[in-house]
Amino acid sequence: MKNLTSILYGLILCGLLIFVIKLSMPDAPEGMVLIPAGDGVDAFYIDVHEVTNAQYKKFIDENPQWRKSRALTAIVDENYLSGWNGNMYPNGKADHPVVNVSWFAAKAYAEWIGKELPTEAQWERAARGTLACKEYPWGDADPHNRANYDRYTSGTDFRNPPTKKVGSYAPNTYGLYDMAGNVQEWCLERLDVNDIHGRYHRMRGGSWFSDAKDIQIAARSQHPVNDGMGTLGFRCVLPQTEAQTTKVATDMAAWLYENMRDQFDSAIFSVTEGFTPHASLNAKFATIVMHNTGYPRTFEKELIRGLSEVIPNRIADIQDEASDIYRDVTLRLWRHYLEVHFQHSSASEFQKLHIFKECLKKNIDNIFVRDGR
User: Which of 69, 72, 79, 178 is least surrounded by Cβ atoms within 10 Å, i.e. has the fewest?
Assistant: First the structure.
């Protein structure tokens, strides 16, 4: 009897301990699961499913600047939401993963919902579940009937690809679905190498297009930051990484500034080498500005007017539109204005210009810097 009483007390104490532990742990956010710390990665939450068309529609409904008809092509490319009819996803695909979204668009969604894109380390730890050194999220078994993969045919439409409803296959041991196949998933990191022109970001997980080898956990690939594909979607994590990434508005503005700078230099080189008539240079500049900002180049006058109100004594330095300093300064003005434009998309043009002038006051030392650009 004494032993039975001791066992009973022990069970009660264990139950109380488990109850206290559960009380001390915050509930997982809806639609997410907790991935415990390990493999050099802190604990984090990750979406159970890939972000769906229905979820992404809520995002563009509340953020009109990301609608198909309004999103800046330089940020999302021409195939953005290409299978959608206006602001509506394809029939019967509400619960399918959203595709044809660029990294910028995916990150903007993540920020809107208060989350972040996963790092590669986070993604891989989540994909492996509690299984170590296995080829797939479920182990080493053949992927047949375990994932949506190898579905490409000559008649496949990449605008409306053969994705499947999220959660159509069994989850891994953490309760995560489609960590292999269905769609590849954007990761936070960029590919930092010198042998690829432009900016690329990592993708993991393989897709409906991939073969069995390419949906293995260890498989890695990359894609241009401003482009989406019918094979590519994403899911999100919490919390944001300790090394906070740049906000998407700041990142997009800086990226577009670099694009315009490089494209201006290329246009000038083409004229210098005699490939392009000098008379067409201004028209080329105007095309570059419109493509990368959505504004006509004449809007630069508003930016310069704002600068003149902040530092009227320096305006004489940028009167000559053909000069290098004019181009350098206006490109920096565009960078600051675009950041305001993306951060305050619902504001009027008048309000944006007011915020822009306040931004210039804080960053004026960077406007006329020509070295180390």
Answer: 69
Kindly state the DSSP code that residue 297 receives in the 8-state scheme.
Answer: G
Q: From CA 112, how far away is CA 100, in angstroms rounded?
A: 19
Rounded Cα distance between 189 and 196, Å, is 15
> Which pLDDT tens digit goes with each residue over 248-286?
999 999 999 999 999 999 999 998 888 888 888 999 999
Q: Are strands 32-35 and 232-233 parallel, antiparallel or unpaired?
A: unpaired
Q: How many domains does the chain have?
A: 2
- Separation CA 216–CA 212 (nearest Å): 7
* Residue 107 DSSP SS3: helix
Environment class of 204 (CB within 10 Å of its CB; exposed 0-12, middle 13-18, buried 19+): buried
φ/ψ of residue 257, rounded to 5: -60, -45
d(CA 368, CA 297): 20
Instruction: State which of 207, 242, 277 marks the end of a domain.
Output: 242
- Token output for 215: 């949906």
